[in-house]
Amino acid sequence: MLEELAHHILDVARNSLEAGATRVEIVVEEDPAGDLLRFSVVDNGSGIPPYVQRHLTNPFFTTKSGKKVGLGLPFLQAAVERCGGNLEIKSEVGRGTKVTATFPYYCWDRPPLGDMPRTIVSLLAGNGHLNLCYRHIFQGQSFKMDTAEIRSRLKGIPLDAPEVLLWLRQYLEENLDILFGGGDHEVARRAG
Amino acid sequence: MKSLAELDKLREKLQDEMRLREGREDVKVVVTMGTCGIASGAREVLTAILEEVSKRGLKGVTVTQTGCAGLCHCEPLVEIERPGRDKVIYGHVDEKKAREIVVSHLVNGQIIKEWIIK
């Protein structure tokens, strides 16, 4: 099982990479007042053929040779169903895929959002050329990171050099803290 | 507080180091990150490796990722590929083991035989 929504996001975005995506956009939207937590992963990968789309949440279906199961999306579907949320997957062959998962914000069974900076940084390891855009919206305020902007400052130094990725992780942590209003947000928000 | 302007300093430092290393082949550290890997802690292992590599000031190490390797029962897996040597695969790696692998295998050149699966 995947313990954090950030793990699910990593898992879905890994599918994008497997589908040959060169651009991935991750949006996380938290709206406690509206009792909503939604994330989406949009890519420009190869897209999912219709015959595969019918089986996306079937754990015993996979497109990979030599394997009998494909658990990523079924796990996400189960997490969504446990809280009465919704999972939507739209895809077009040759254009790309959009996965959107919607959860109620206040629900005991909802996995915590978890460590988004770690997810973003892990996704970029070995993928320094990926165009990754990450937007996080909390109570209407938003923070945005775009690897294109970071790369333009690095001038040829690989984005996925360990030092750069660690810098990026800290940068994201600090900016999310500011977005959440500082302090230990997950505890505070849960208590609310 | 981190700002994008800070990246300029980091870039200059890394540019100097890269010039010194030019032409030499990197050691590759590969973390498998299929669903099986992610569920058993591959993300945590990968970031621990990044931290340890950076803390030890190791140069010429590429940390990268791949999909499921079909050894789901041994996840998280860490593969180490040194140019001209056989690939070494460590299984059931956690954050602590990952840091030890960096120190022992990458810094001291000592393979940790007990953790190898292949």
TrEMBL record, chain A:
Gene Ontology biological-process annotations: phosphorelay signal transduction system
Keyword Kinase: yes
Catalyzed reactions: ATP + protein L-histidine = ADP + protein N-phospho-L-histidine
A Pfam family matched in the record: HATPase_c
Presence of the UniProt keyword Transferase in the record: yes
PANTHER family (alphabetical): SENSOR HISTIDINE KINASE (PTHR43065), SENSOR PROTEIN KINASE FLES (PTHR43065:SF29)
Protein name as catalogued: histidine kinase
Organism: Desulfofundulus australicus DSM 11792
UniProtKB/TrEMBL annotation, chain B:
Keywords from the named record: Iron, Iron-sulfur, Metal-binding
Tagged with keyword Iron-sulfur: yes
Gene3D superfamilies hit by this protein: Glutaredoxin
A GO term for molecular function: metal ion binding
Protein name, per record: NAD(P)-dependent iron-only hydrogenase iron-sulfur protein
Lineage: Bacteria, Bacillati, Bacillota, Clostridia, Eubacteriales
